Amino acid sequence: MPNKTIYVSDDDLALYKRAQEIAGNLSSAISTALRRYVEMEEGRLEGYDEITVRVGRGAGRKQRFSGVLLAEGGRSSKDGYEAFKVYRSRTGKFVLHADRRDQYKQGATKPAGTDDGGWRSWIGTLGLTDSSWSMAQGEATLYVVETVAELRELIPDDLYALVEEAANQPAVEDLDI
After folding, report:
1. What 3-state DSSP class applies to 43?
2. pLDDT score for 21
3. pLDDT by residue (tens digit) across 150-171?
4. Three-state SS at 45
5. 97/14 Cα distance (integer angstroms)
6. What is the pLDDT of residues 65-92, one digit of tens each?
7. What is the per-residue DSSP string for 106-171?
8. Residue-by-residue DSSP string for 3-36
9. β-pairing, 49-57 with 94-102?
């Protein structure tokens, strides 16, 4: 195995020592970090972003991937609000982040004049309404599918049309202007 010498500035010496303590094998830690750096930078150069989303109930957990946003939208009803974001991953798969929220917290009262649908139903998530009511915690899900057609049953028709249109476009179009 070839040896490579890495010169460390005095300012970074504490960082390297801490990495050695955590990883046990500094060479392995450096290789892992470089692999992730190269992967993310190559994706960024191709027009992809690092996407981090929350999934699960309530605060949930975070999941991260490299992708480009194709379309987003939502729909509300008397029961709640659904927000959708559709991405194309760097590997060519389609990723749907669906965030579903119930209308109101159990026992909360609506402000006077608020109807059961439309923008007033979900505006509480923006913090722009009376503090006596707010949206309930919902559940967010991440779906990964191979084709756009597999999204048809998961998202509203108007959003599907946008995704279908954007699916074959490059992540970044370089203009010669």
Report:
1. helix
2. 87
3. 999 999 999 999 999 998 887 7
4. helix
5. 39
6. 999 999 999 888 888 889 999 999 999 9
7. TT--PPTT--SSSHHHHGGGGT-S-TT--PPP-EEEEEEESSGGGGTTTS-HHHHHHHHHHTTS-S
8. -------GGGHHHHHHHHHHHS-HHHHHHHHHHH
9. unpaired
- Helix 26-45 and helix 13-23: axis angle, to 10°? 110
Spell out, as residue ranges, where the chain has pLDDT lower than 70.
Answer: 103-137
Kindly tell me the burial class for residue 86, based on how many C-beta atoms sit within 10 Å of its own C-beta (0-12, 13-18, 19 or more).
Answer: buried
155 and 137 in contact (C-beta within 8 Å)? Answer: no
Q: Which residue has the tokens 């303590």?
A: 21
- Residue 107 in contact with residue 82, Cβ under 8 Å? no
Q: Which residue has the tokens 């597999």?
A: 150
Whether 16 contacts 30, CB under 8 Å: no
> How long, in residues, is the chain?
177
Distance, in Å, from the CA atom of 87 to the CA atom of 62, rounded to the nearest integer, reads: 16
Which residue ranges make up each domain of the chain?
Answer: 10-45, 48-166
Residue 145's Cβ-count burial label (10 Å; 0-12, 13-18, 19+) is middle
